[in-house]
Amino acid sequence: MEVKIYHNPACGTSRNVLAALREAGYEPQVIEYLKNPPDRATLKELLRRMGKNVRDVLRKRGTPYEELKLDDPTLSDDEIFAAIEKHPILIERPIVSMGDKAALCRPAETVNDLIARSKT
Hints:
This protein is of the alpha+beta class and 120 residues long. The chain is 35% helix and 14% strand. It has a 4-stranded mixed beta sheet with strand order 2-1-3-4. Keywords: Arsenical resistance, Oxidoreductase.
Protein backbone atom coordinates (compact mmCIF):
# COMPACT_ATOMS: atom_id res chain seq x y z
CA MET A 1 0.00 0.00 0.00
CA GLU A 2 1.28 3.44 -0.93
CA VAL A 3 1.62 5.73 2.09
CA LYS A 4 2.39 9.44 1.81
CA ILE A 5 2.70 12.18 4.39
CA TYR A 6 2.48 15.85 3.49
CA HIS A 7 4.98 16.91 6.10
CA ASN A 8 6.57 19.96 7.65
CA PRO A 9 9.70 18.89 9.54
CA ALA A 10 9.47 22.03 11.70
CA CYS A 11 6.07 20.94 13.05
CA GLY A 12 6.00 18.74 16.15
CA THR A 13 2.64 17.19 15.23
CA SER A 14 3.92 16.33 11.78
CA ARG A 15 7.07 14.75 13.23
CA ASN A 16 4.96 12.74 15.71
CA VAL A 17 2.69 11.44 12.94
CA LEU A 18 5.68 10.44 10.83
CA ALA A 19 7.14 8.58 13.82
CA ALA A 20 3.80 6.82 14.46
CA LEU A 21 3.63 5.66 10.84
CA ARG A 22 7.14 4.26 11.07
CA GLU A 23 6.40 2.59 14.41
CA ALA A 24 3.38 0.93 12.76
CA GLY A 25 5.72 -0.54 10.13
CA TYR A 26 5.18 1.93 7.27
CA GLU A 27 7.91 3.83 5.47
CA PRO A 28 5.90 6.63 3.89
CA GLN A 29 6.88 8.83 1.01
CA VAL A 30 7.64 12.09 2.79
CA ILE A 31 6.53 15.15 0.85
CA GLU A 32 7.72 18.41 2.35
CA TYR A 33 4.69 20.32 1.14
CA LEU A 34 6.26 23.75 1.64
CA LYS A 35 8.99 22.81 -0.87
CA ASN A 36 6.80 20.60 -3.09
CA PRO A 37 3.17 21.60 -2.59
CA PRO A 38 0.43 19.38 -3.98
CA ASP A 39 -1.14 20.75 -7.14
CA ARG A 40 -4.82 21.61 -7.15
CA ALA A 41 -5.90 18.25 -8.61
CA THR A 42 -3.93 16.34 -5.97
CA LEU A 43 -5.30 18.47 -3.15
CA LYS A 44 -8.86 18.05 -4.46
CA GLU A 45 -8.37 14.27 -4.56
CA LEU A 46 -7.01 14.25 -1.00
CA LEU A 47 -9.99 16.31 0.15
CA ARG A 48 -12.40 13.90 -1.56
CA ARG A 49 -10.76 10.94 0.16
CA MET A 50 -10.89 12.78 3.51
CA GLY A 51 -14.53 13.79 3.04
CA LYS A 52 -13.56 17.43 3.61
CA ASN A 53 -13.77 20.69 1.73
CA VAL A 54 -10.94 23.11 1.09
CA ARG A 55 -11.89 25.34 4.03
CA ASP A 56 -11.48 22.36 6.38
CA VAL A 57 -7.73 22.21 5.71
CA LEU A 58 -6.92 25.91 5.95
CA ARG A 59 -4.28 26.71 8.52
CA LYS A 60 -4.91 30.02 10.25
CA ARG A 61 -2.05 30.41 12.72
CA GLY A 62 1.31 31.54 11.37
CA THR A 63 -0.06 32.08 7.86
CA PRO A 64 -1.42 34.94 5.75
CA TYR A 65 -4.98 33.65 6.43
CA GLU A 66 -6.22 36.87 8.07
CA GLU A 67 -4.29 39.16 5.73
CA LEU A 68 -5.93 37.42 2.75
CA LYS A 69 -9.34 37.56 4.46
CA LEU A 70 -9.88 33.83 3.86
CA ASP A 71 -12.59 33.79 6.52
CA ASP A 72 -14.86 35.63 4.05
CA PRO A 73 -17.76 33.21 3.42
CA THR A 74 -18.33 34.69 -0.05
CA LEU A 75 -14.95 33.45 -1.31
CA SER A 76 -15.28 30.61 -3.78
CA ASP A 77 -13.37 27.36 -3.49
CA ASP A 78 -11.41 28.42 -6.59
CA GLU A 79 -10.30 31.59 -4.81
CA ILE A 80 -9.21 29.58 -1.78
CA PHE A 81 -7.34 27.06 -3.94
CA ALA A 82 -5.61 29.99 -5.67
CA ALA A 83 -4.51 31.37 -2.29
CA ILE A 84 -3.16 27.95 -1.29
CA GLU A 85 -1.25 27.67 -4.56
CA LYS A 86 0.48 31.00 -3.80
CA HIS A 87 0.92 30.24 -0.08
CA PRO A 88 1.25 26.49 0.62
CA ILE A 89 1.73 27.31 4.32
CA LEU A 90 -2.07 27.69 4.33
CA ILE A 91 -2.43 23.90 4.17
CA GLU A 92 -2.97 22.43 7.64
CA ARG A 93 -0.63 19.56 8.33
CA PRO A 94 0.11 16.75 8.34
CA ILE A 95 -2.07 15.09 5.74
CA VAL A 96 -1.53 11.35 5.41
CA SER A 97 -2.61 9.28 2.44
CA MET A 98 -2.83 5.49 2.83
CA GLY A 99 -4.11 3.56 -0.15
CA ASP A 100 -7.57 4.92 -0.96
CA LYS A 101 -7.93 6.74 2.38
CA ALA A 102 -6.56 10.03 3.65
CA ALA A 103 -6.80 12.12 6.80
CA LEU A 104 -5.71 15.40 8.27
CA CYS A 105 -3.78 14.00 11.23
CA ARG A 106 -4.24 16.83 13.69
CA PRO A 107 -4.26 15.92 16.49
CA ALA A 108 -1.49 13.39 15.89
CA GLU A 109 -3.55 10.52 17.33
CA THR A 110 -5.82 10.74 14.28
CA VAL A 111 -3.22 8.73 12.38
CA ASN A 112 -4.05 5.68 14.52
CA ASP A 113 -7.63 5.66 13.22
CA LEU A 114 -6.38 6.04 9.65
CA ILE A 115 -3.98 3.12 10.13
CA ALA A 116 -6.80 0.98 11.53
CA ARG A 117 -9.20 1.92 8.70
CA SER A 118 -6.54 1.20 6.08
CA LYS A 119 -6.12 -2.38 7.32
CA THR A 120 -9.77 -3.21 6.63
